[in-house]
Amino acid sequence: MARGDGRLSHDLDPNDKGPQDACGVFGVWAPGEDVAKLTYFGLYALQHRGQESAGIATSDGHSILVYKDMGLVSQVFDEGALNSLRGHIAVGHTRYSTTGGSTWENAQPTLGGSDHGTVALAHNGNLINTLALREMVQDRLRGRTSRGELARGNTSDTALVTTLLAEDPDRSIEDAAMKVLPLIEGAFCFVFMNEGTLYAARDAYGVRPLALGRLERGWVVASETAALQTIGASVIREVEPGELIAIDEDGLRSRKFAEPKPKGCVFEFVYLARPDAVIRDRVVHEARVEMGRILAREHPVDADMVIGVPESGVPAATGYAQESGIPYAQGFVKNAYVGRTFIQPSQTLRQLGIRLKLNPLEHAIRGKRIVVIDDSIVRGNTQRAQVRMLREAGAAEIHVRISSPPIQWPCFYGIDFASRAELVAAGLEVEEIRASIGADSLGYISKDGMVAATRQPPTELCTACFTGSYPIALPEDGKVGKHVLETLPIEVRTGHDSSIEHTAEDRKDAEGVSVGLSGGAQNALLHP
User: Ranges for the Glutamine amidotransferase type-2 domain (predicted)?
Assistant: First the structure.
């Protein structure tokens, strides 16, 4: 399905799914402010992190309302919906599914009820001990009725966490969080609330970014600093790894639930985050430009012009041009109005060369030796289409340069790459990939070069998708993956006191095919 933010060229071939973003989370505590609209604009700034569904929950101190649906932020909300979401606390979410299918039932924020009130929770990341959490939920609910979304068909790891936080009869939400958070394994940034308090928590490894901001009359947390700046909040700091923040009428308080072991995702710098985001004091755009400079030093070539694949390849292309002295020029024209479409071209139309996203600027590239900069290669179909378009437009030579190393392993921490069996670099050497995409030359940045561009300590970055070295240990039984809760029986008790079992036979994906853990992901667990 085509992405709606226009950043990627990976959907030149609709069958070629590129790296899909982690989700975006946003939370605000601000009495006297229109928190629903602040959250709306904050989510707009985070739209690139997920385009499958969007949702906002608000509280007026007495009750929580939630509005969520499938689609982009601009498609889900209108003026009337936002005006109905009243209160001084809000939690928002934009989703790309990494655990649980892309369905309305799995849209966030998720809700859970308890004796201590209602919990609304939004999650960015991916948990790897989902089955253990599922067992905790079943033990907690033994003989009792669930008041959460699991009983209504939610199959996400987020719903499990929401249930564990909400359905602890002996603890407040905050105390339940201090007990539950240390038991959660994987990558997570949680933004959640009950009727009176906004909470934010980040896993001990800090895999995904989460920033804290200040409004004149309140506080804001968001996946990226750009979302804080969009609504006029000043950036205070990052939420620390292993930290739980609570914000209410008494102010802001911080508690540590785990010792920090920083392993931030390097792919946030390569592609995921907005260029204007700041992660650990490094402006993402500057890191990408530096990656281009390093690429030029590591893989020089005689050429007439450097072009970047819009939009994610442009900063690195700028850096490559600066370092090499080869002029930078626009080589592709992007259709800015192609959004999320459910109409896919048939095979016959694809063979005609349908170009929904990009078209080569023929007069600029005819007869030229071109360096093409892109952020990554997943299956290779996209780059093959790019090279073919440039050849047809008359390019004399095409030299492809990639601002990340070869992606050889799936991510289990919040990015939905293709399975390992589908990753072209998992089975082919660089020269074989070059021949496959039809380029005259191909060069990837080195891992050390990529890391150096981020200006982060190498020991504090996760590079698992390039190295296969996963900093958070994966379950030995291989029971992890996007559809792990949809392919195994799960029993909950509904409000009608009847048990429900979902199995692989009765849980189908959108195409009506039983879903399960892909062979590539299993291979990554069995042969790291």
Answer: 23-250
Whether residues 180 and 219 fall in one domain: yes
Residues 345 and 233 in one domain: no
| 465 assigned to a ligand binding site | yes
Q: Is 438 inside a domain boundary?
A: yes
Q: Are residues 226 and 347 in the same domain?
A: no
pLDDT per position as a tens digit, 354-396: 567 788 999 999 999 999 999 999 989 889 999 999 999 999 9
Cα–Cα dist 25/227, whole Å: 10
Task: Give the sign of the dihedral formed by CA 227, CA 279, CA 411, CA 488.
Answer: negative
Asked whether residue 265 is marked as a ligand-binding residue, the answer is yes
Averaged pLDDT, 20-27: 81
- What rounded mean pLDDT belongs to the chain? 83
Single-letter amino acid code for the residue at 490: I
Q: Just list the catalytic residues.
A: 23
DSSP state of 50: -
- Range from 44-48, 211-215, 320-324, 437-441 carrying the lowest mean pLDDT: 44-48
pLDDT value at residue 311: 86
411 is in an annotated binding site: yes
Phi-psi region of 493 (alpha: psi -120 to 50; beta: other; left: phi over 0): beta
Final residue belonging to a domain, choices 429, 455, 481: 455
